[in-house]
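<instruction>
Derive structure tokens from the sequence
<data>
Labelled lines for chain and fold
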Amino acid sequence: MKPWRWWACPNWNSASPRNCRAGNATRSPLLLLDEPLSNLDEKLRTELRHDLRGLFGQLGAGVLLVTHDQREALALAHRVAVMRAGQVVQVGAARNVFASPATAWTAEFLGWTNVFARPGGRALLVPEQAARLGAGDPTPLLSRQPHETGETVTLAHPLGPLTLHLSVREAALLGGAQPGDPVRLALEQSLLQEVPDDRQDR
């Protein structure tokens, strides 16, 4: 890497050689890619993601890649910066940012579909692995006997009729359930994430 000279002048308008100081900085090579795979078909995009990741490791240079494709960012980046309206809203290791979005807007931008508004400007993120399906009649979310003390419902969100799209593996867990049959949906509370709901901010 080649050094280059820089000059620091406290007051540029009245700068003179005696009140400017010189120094050395390191010029590091940087490759800028702006949506490099956007015009390719899906098969070629998939192949090139793998090839580019290997190429980036061989270059010995920093790579700044701009993309709106979540899969592309996750496949190619060690670190990601999510931008909104020209401002960086979250930075971190790629897998950490995708797994734990800082806000509801970021979650939806990164492809999360289960983002539910809560009171007080909050939102609940429900990752796919938090949901468990079972066949049979619906069961109450919360019930108690008359002599028992009450409990606090922390989330009640009427969703109305839902259509669930399942993989073959997930459908197998439901046994002989047919379209329109009632199913049970349980959520693993430890996997749920509550974040600020900033979707209406801008």
User: Anything to note?
Assistant: Helices lie at 42-59, 70-76, 94-99, 104-109, 168-172. The mean pLDDT is 75.
